[in-house]
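[job 4417] fold queue: 2 targets
>>> target A
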Amino acid sequence: MEQQSVAKSQSLDPASPEGVQAPVQTDPSPRGSARQLARIRKLFEALLPGYQGRASIRLWDGTRVAGKTSAPTTVVLRQPAVIRRLLVSRDILALGEAFLAGDIDIEGPIEGAFDLVDYLDDHSPGWSARWRAAWRALGLPVRYHAPGTRGLRARRSARRNSRASIGHHYDVSNDFYRLWLDPEMVYSCAYFREPAQTLEAAQRDKLDYVCRKLRLRPGQHLLDIGCGWGALIRHAATHYGVQAHGITLSGQQYDYARARVRDEGLDDQVTVDLCDYRNLPRETRFDRIVSIGMFEHVGIRNFPTYFETVKGLLRPGGLFLNHGITNDSGWLDTPITRFVNRYVFPDGELTRVSEVSSALERAGFEILDVEDLRPHYAMTCRRWVRRLEQASEQARALTNEMIYRIWRLYMAGAGYYFQQGSLRVYQALVCHSGEPWPVPLRRNDLYMP
């Protein structure tokens, strides 16, 4: 993975739709006194005793203060005020925000930085050591430039999955996403035959795997809730002969999906609407319903509305496949969840798969099949990060330095935690409770060559 250096940020019009404020760059080579540098070395000796993980820490003057020289990842601190803020506030969120502002840089594989975050979480020093560290940190410079937000903060709205929150993430730029997604613009985990398979081939396999799980047949009516750029509905219509309808809350995804449908001559089979799933006509019915990567925006308190709405839209004998990310703890108030809600998904929330299963059963579904695709998402995220980094200059030109850093950090972190296991992604196939068995007795049809 290529090494990255701090680049000058591009300022945006403050009246732009995203409301992005470019990060303020600080002097890349602040001059610290010998006494100040000695103080910083003691701080890290106390806070990271014996750390020998995947990352090392280097100061602005080239001094390595933690980790081994052979570590593949190096976290570069560009100014001492970052250390002060981290130690005085004792908030790991400060590390992420300092990275967005350009006051911290990461050289080498960015995932290695999360190894350092986990170490800090798992090896917190005692109160006495923390008090001494914070006291020493008070002697460091105060100057710090926090990054500008992108106009939205975490909020507890009764109507999650709103157009504003969806547009915050998905309407950055179709050209930006095109830089690092596959040609079909699939923004969810691929399905790999083996680790060396290309992203393009693995995403095609995922689309086909979903269609086989749904046992699609010609003439059936398929609804895709949160259809993204339209890859699945186009694939299902082309290869399985269904009548497919996709809905999204992203204006840019809607425009792109409509254009692809038209260009591929699928107007008689595929329709796309800019629509909230809660606003679909209640008299409409579908043979198959699928939702991939939208579920994370629903909000846990809205599970009953979500699943009961889907149940009402699903014909008797129909199948519903829900594909969504879960975690092992629920959506707790942590530095990482605050970072995600502030800079990535304003209304995003994850929970345990057990909570999802219970909500499905309470809504009147029978669970036919549940599959964890966790390793597939780790491999997908790593490919996305690598492709984004390879297109870093174009990505910055299409958006700005801060957005490039947000996506690089967020996707690398997702890859790390999918590999570690605290993030998971499940496909749950369900039907109406109490109906005749709607799928074959065995799963042989899922594993066609």
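>>> target B
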Amino acid sequence: MPRLTHINPAYRRHRASGQAVVSIAGRDHYLGPWKSKASMAEYDRVIGEWLANGRRPSVSEISDITVGEIIDRFWQHAKSYYRHPDGTPTSEVTNLKSPLGILNRLYGATPATAFGPLALESVRMQMVSAGWCRKNVNRQVDRIKLVFR
């Protein structure tokens, strides 16, 4: 049987960016520079909203974001993350363009909460109808899943 605790999520340092971060329901909230007064105030605000909502993320925060916004945020992350040691982009950045383009064209304006397995199947069928081979389709679908993680 799990042990129930009433401990708040930890205020911690994100090594790569040097910012303070707190994870609530699997989502990271970046708070600002590590150990600054502003980041600690932001931590208090985020935790306060979380506690006021019954230890659940706020519904408006989840439902407002669209698939297009998720794609844009992931694209910004991918351009800085997928790099060789010398700073040049890896081929993964190029490989992401095609599946993200199809996803954005079909579901860019759709709320992210409405995107589910049937929508992913629709994206997959679009790739198949474009003549992509099975192995390539499966890899691209895995990349789309990565975007939503």
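[job 4417] complete. Note on B: Residues 91-107 form the longest helix (17 residues).
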